Each structure stands twice: as C-alpha cells, then as structure tokens.
Amino acid sequence: MTKQQKLLTINLFLLTFVLGTSEFVIVGLLTEVSTDLNIAISTAGALVSTFAISFAIGTPILTALFSRFSKYPLMLALIAVFIAGNILTALSGTYALLLVSRIVTAVVTGVLIALAMAVASETVSTEKRGVVISIIFTGFTIASVIGVPLGTYIGQWGGWHMAFWFTALLGIVSLIVSSATIPKGLKGTQNSLKKQIGLLTNSRIIIAFFIPALSIGATYTIYTYLTPLLQEVLSVPERYISLVFLLYGVVSIFSTLIGGKLAIHNGIGKLRYVFLIQSAILVSLYFSSNSIVGGLLSISFIALIVYTMNSTMQLYFIDLADKHFPSAKDLASSLTPVSVNVGIAIGSALGGFVTTNMELIDVSWFGGIIAIAASLLTFISYNLDRKAILNKNMKSSI
Question: Looking at the structure, do residues 17 and 136 belong to the same domain, yes or no?
Fold first, then answer.
C-alpha cells in the first residue's frame, strides 16, 4: 500500500475505535445513569437496545439517502454531528434528552461505518481489501478492550457525563485526522431511493444478511449472560470477572485479524466450515463448565472465532451489490454492522428465554444450534454463487 493508503487505514481504524467507544461505554455506566436520573436500571438499560434498534433501522435508510453526496464532505459533516450528539449526551439532565441524543448518535454511527468501509473498498487494491477492512473492524474490538474500560473509569471517577465529554473529544481528534486523510475525489452515486432500497429486497442479499446475524446471535446467546455463567456455573470470584472480559476482548482482536486473512480468497467457502467449528466451540462450554480452566478455554475459543466472518461478509455484500445493484454499494457497506446489531438482539433475546425457562448452561446448546443455521445459510449462498458462475460460463461458451 502507498503511504496515503496506510494513513487512511489508520484513520478509519481510529474512527471505528471512537464510534465503538461511544456506542458501548454506556453499558459500564448504567448504574451511574440510573442513580443520577432517578430511573430504574431496566429503564437505563433501554438506552442500549434503543441504540441498537436506531442503528439497525436508520443506517440503511440514511446511507441510501446520502449515497449521492461526495464522501469527503459527507463524512466530515457526519463526524461533526457525531461530536454534537456526544456533547448533547454529556449535557443531558433528563432521560428524554439522553434518549434523543443516543438515537442521533446511533444513526450517525451506522452511516459513518458504512462510509468507512466503502472508502476502504474504493481506495485499496482488491487483494488488500480484506486485510484493510479487518483492521478497520478491529477498531471496534480495541474499543471494547481499551476505550470502553477507560471511558467507564472516567465516568465512575468524574460522573457519567464526563465519559461523553471524553468521547466528544475523541470525535474532534477523528475529525481533524479525517480532514487530512480521506480522499477528496470519491464521488457519490446518483440514483433514486427506490432503486437503493431495492437492494434490500434481493433474495441473495436477504440470505447473506442473516449469515452474520445468526453467527453473532449464536455467540451473544452466551456472551450476554457471561457474567452469571462465570459466577454461578464456573464459580469465578467476582473480583476476577473484569479480567475474564479483558481476556475475551484481547483474544477477539485476533479473531478480527484472522477474519481478514480468510477474506482474501474464497471467504464464503471457508465460512461454511468456520461456523460449524463455532458451533462445536459453543457447545463445548456445556462440557467444560465443570472446571474453571476448561470453561475459560472454551470462552477464549468463543472469542477467537466470534469476528472471523466480518471482513468476508463486508466484501461479500459489496460484491453482490456490484453484480446486482451497482448503484447501491454504499448501502451494501452498511449491511454487516446492521446485521450484527440484529444478531445481538436475536442472541440476547434467545439467551433470555433459555435462562428463564431452562438451566443457565443450556445457552451453550442453543448458541451451537444457531451457529449451525449460519453455516447452512452460508452453504446456500456458496452454492448459488457456484451456479451463477457455471451459468455464466455456459452462456459465454455458446
């Protein structure tokens, strides 16, 4: 890669780190928010689900609307709105204002992620796309390992408002760096919203959309309830719980990097078997949970495989759009993070059902079943790709 491409990659990594920190830091501050605003902890928790829902609904719509604009001024404008959203959160004295600020931040976050992926895809060579996109995705992982704990510490030390002054400051840094590194010549695509949204009704896109949703959902069936699993099943002392989450975050960094390698050639073909391995790892927790060491090994392997599909699916959506809806590639770039948020909702809901009606450790079986479903959808997509190639070759030979 050229020096300019390397600087751009570092900037987009920084951008996703900032976006991830802003999105997830609220999880560590729910108690402080509920106490300060005099609301129930469940009401404070609704901020997390509201963010995910706003992200999932708003991202594809606004990405389609904004696709006609040049990416340089658009990204800078959206980063400015992101900064304003975090400042509004930091100034919030009521739950209603806090909720509105998080909705605004969520929608802008989703569009910025889509644009970051689109910029990376358009500015680096085909053979480097998988690695670059995996680096950009790693920004989210690093946010959970470093950004969120740091933001939580700041919030607990200086009040939860201070944590969002911190994320606003990070946004300002990202704005300055982005203004210097994002290429100015990336034009938008003139097309109607109807044609853009038509991408979402394509059967190939629909099948592909649920691949990452089911894979992440499989993991979050367990991950959402990892704390009670550690305490009640593995008997891990409470003072070590945060260390386990740190271990999970560090290992998941390697998951993203491995995913970048898988995406270089025939990533979809490889994912068919990766999801079967994921299923086996999730189920292994059921059998290894009778010892702390065995359970922690299973949890480490869960982290090692959780993000292996990100880069492949990001490129797959863009390639499908390039074949069927060339004018909707920006919208296609938003589908992986949207699908991941849908998957988080699916996994959390399924985990809640299991823990309410069955034994806590049974979440491992259900997570494994969902991962098998992700593998089946991947097999279907892969076979459809093969048939399309065969049909194309047959027509060209006639």
Answer: yes
How many CB atoms neighbour CB 262 within 10 A?
21
Which residue type is seen at 295?
G
266-311 pLDDT, tens digit each:
889 999 999 999 999 999 999 999 999 999 999 999 999 998 988 8
The structural domain count of the chain equals: 2
Tell me whether residue 265 is exposed, middle or buried, using C-beta atoms within 10 angstroms of its C-beta: 0 to 12, 13 to 18, 19 or more: exposed
Between helices 310-324 and 267-288, what is the axis angle to 10°? 150
The verdict on 159 and 27 lying in the same domain is yes
CATH number at residue 288: 1.20.1250.20
Do 266 and 205 lie in a common domain?
yes
Distance CA 332, CA 19 (A): 19
Q: Is the torsion defined by CA of 201, 205, 206, 212 positive or negative?
A: negative
Residues 241 and 169 in one domain: no
* Collapsed DSSP state (helix, strand, coil) of residue 39: coil
Residue written as token pair 């988080």: 344
Alpha-carbon distance 140 to 25, whole Å?
Answer: 12
Residues 180 and 214 in one domain: no
pLDDT (tens digit per residue) in 307-337: 898 888 888 888 888 887 776 776 777 788 8
